[in-house]
Structure formats: structure tokens, C-alpha cells
Design a protein that fits this description.
With 96 residues, the chain is of the alpha+beta class. It has one domain (17-86). It is built from one helix and three strands; from the N terminus they run βββα. Strand 1 and strand 2 (31-39) form a beta hairpin. The protein is extended. It starts with 21 loop residues before the first strand and ends in a 14-residue tail after the last helix. The model is unreliable at 92-96 (pLDDT under 50).
Length: 96
């Protein structure tokens, strides 16, 4: 079978994308749902961090492995070009 080239059409209103510092994943029987969000402010008095969802993406469960492969390959290529990536530091409960 001949390889086909993908032509991507990105509408102007989606060009900027959405900035996210958080991701939540849940599922139905047939879909994985990825909610991307940002924290709206500092932790509340009861240690909750309010998150505002900026984008929700639903993918068929069977697509999850391909999605993970693309993300992994993207990170490998990013680190090859820019060096090792550091994970964001998380505040420990003892520091509060």
C-alpha cells in the first residue's frame, strides 16, 4: 500500500492554541477524554487548586496508543534539539 501524505487544515481561530499546565484524563466505554486546564489562582484555604478547563479533547480508546506514541516521539525530538526537559516542581504538603 502506498504511503499517503496528510494535509492539515488549521482554522485561523485555532492557530494560537490553548495554554495548559494541567491535564485530567477520564473515560467512557469507547472514548478517552482529556481535559486541559490552567490554575486560576493559588491554593484555597483547604488546599484545593482551582483549575479552569481551556480545552477538552475526546479520542477513541483505540487511538490512545497512537496518541501516546506521537507525544513520546515529540518529547524525544524536543530533548534531542533542546536538551533534557525538567518536570515542573510540585509543592509538597510538608512545605505548606
Amino acid at each position: 500500500m502506498a504511503s499517503r501524505e496528510t494535509e492539515i487544515n488549521l482554522p485561523d481561530d485555532l492557530t494560537a492554541g490553548a495554554y495548559a499546565t494541567w491535564v485530567g484524563v477520564w473515560h467512557t466505554r469507547y472514548e478517552l477524554v482529556l481535559d486541559f486546564g490552567v490554575s486560576e489562582r493559588e491554593e484555597t484555604d483547604d488546599d484545593r487548586v482551582p483549575i479552569r478547563v481551556v480545552s477538552r479533547v475526546r479520542v477513541p480508546v483505540g487511538f490512545a496508543f497512537e496518541l501516546l506514541s506521537h507525544v513520546s516521539n515529540g518529547m524525544i525530538e524536543h530533548e534531542r534539539i533542546y536538551g533534557e526537559s525538567r518536570r515542573p516542581e510540585r509543592r509538597l504538603a510538608e512545605e505548606a
